[in-house]
Amino acid sequence: MTDDDTPPERRRMVRPPTGGTAAGRGMGQKIRTAEKKSLSSQEWIKRQLADPWSERARAEGWRSRAAFKLIEIDDRFHLIKTGSRVVDLGAAPGGWVQVAVNRGAAAVVGVDLLPVDAIPGATLIQADFTEAGVDDQLIAELGGLPDLVLSDMAHNTIGHRQTDHLKIIALIEIAAEFALRTLRPGGAFVTKNFQGGDAGGVLADLRAGFETVKYVKPSSSRKDSSEVYLVALNRLR
Question: Which of 192, 214, 217, 223 is catalytic?
Answer without folding.
Answer: 192
